[in-house]
Amino acid sequence: MHSQTNTYLLMKRLFLFFIAILFVACGGHGNRIWENSYILWYAPAHPQLKEHYAINSSGNPVGVPEYSIEVWGRSSDAPIPSFAKSCSYDNNKSLYKQLCQKHHDNSYKEERYEWPNTPDVNDAYIAVSADFVDIDITCSPAYDDAHPDGSSVADIVKVTFTTLKPFIDAGYKYTQNNSEWNCGLACCTHPNYYHYVKMMNEMTARDMILLGPTMNLEFVTPPATQRIYTLVLTMVTDEGDVYTNRMTVQMPIER
Predict the structure, then answer these.
(1) Selection from 173, 106, 141, 164 nearest residue 248 by Cα
(2) With helix as H, strand as E and coil as C, how does the chain read?
(3) Is residue 61 part of a domain?
(4) Phi, psi for 217 (deg, rounded to 5)
(5) What is the pLDDT of residues 144-174, one digit of tens each?
(6) In DSSP terms, which residues pair with 68 in a beta bridge?
(7) CA neighbours within 13 Å on the CB side: how many for 52?
(8) Does residue 119 have a cis bond before it (omega within 30 degrees)?
(9) What confidence tens digit (pLDDT) does each residue in 78-103 have?
(10) Number of structural domains in the chain
(11) 22 found inside a domain
């Protein structure tokens, strides 16, 4: 009987120890969130042009480069703050409430959990703090005969982008067929972002409200000459703030 008791106590301790390890490994218990707004965090705007390659199993870049615009601030001078708590409880509570009111995001009624060690989950509830009304890319030197030195190439750049605006406007309902999308954007894994493809010169201010973190870019025609080009991105917010960023790339890359 005594031996059975000791065995029981040992098994109980091992079970509790296993549960404790699992609890720590999973990042502890998530913070309960009961907000009237779907968006829990507004990230700082910091648009940047990016060039990136696919990476093989050895970690080396392969294939033709892709271009994108990183919309949210993830650089050292404009970091995404900690996911440890909802932004409605930090020092920017007043600004957060103003942005929620601006976007009519004030009638969400579902309880959620915020997991500090899994930001990919929390990304579903984040939007850029700025709404944009204009976007353009210029190129130097001349891209081709139709696009002289320093002129806009927005009419030959196809943009794949995402936004939370239609989801909120529809009363927090998602109606887009997401099965047709495999856009390569990080936010494609979050089901409430709506996905769109437009030529850059056809994008409107409504398209650029509550943008997702990344916009993919594709030049639909190659340049006349293979050489080094400088691309300059300009994005203007509804408050008149102007963001510019430049990137030097070689185009086209031979396949």
Answers:
(1) 141
(2) CHHHHHHHHHHHHHHHHHHHHHHHHCCCCCEEECCCCCCCEEECEEEEEEEEEEECCCCCEEEEEEEEEEEECCCCCCCCCCCCCCHHHCCCHHHHHHHHHHCCCCCCCCCEEECCCCHHHHHHHEEECCCEEEEEEEEECCCECCECCCEECHHHEEEEEEECHHHHHCCCCCCCCHHHCCCCCHHHHCCCCEEEEEEHHHCCHHHHCCECCEEEEEECCCCCCCEEEEEEEEEEECCCCEEEEEEEEEECCCC
(3) yes
(4) -120, 140
(5) 999 999 999 999 999 999 899 999 999 998 8
(6) 50, 216
(7) 16
(8) no
(9) 334 433 334 444 456 778 888 889 99
(10) 1
(11) no
Closest among 246, 255, 209 to 51, alpha carbons compared: 246
List the domain range (segments joined by +) for residue 58: 46-79+127-251
Phi, psi of 87 (to 5 degrees): -65, -15
Contact assessment for residue 239 and residue 130, using Cβ atoms and an 8 Å cutoff:
yes
Domain-embedded: residue 23: no
